[in-house]
Amino acid sequence: MLLLGGCSGKPLRNVEIDPPTRGLLHYLQQDQMTNVSDRGYKVIVAEEEEKSAQSGREIGLELQVLDPSGVPVERFTEDMTKLMHLIVVSADLSTFSHVHPVHEGQGKFKVKLSFPHGGRFLLISEFMPDDVGLTVYKKWITVGGEEPASEKLTVSESMQTVVAGVEVTLTAMPDVQEIKAGEMAMLNFTLKDAATGKPIKLEPFLGTAGHCVILDESATQYLHVHAVSGMSSGSSSSVMFHTQFPKAGLYKLWGQFQYQGKVLVVPFVIKV
Question: How far is CA 215 from the centre of its chain?
Answer without folding.
Answer: 8
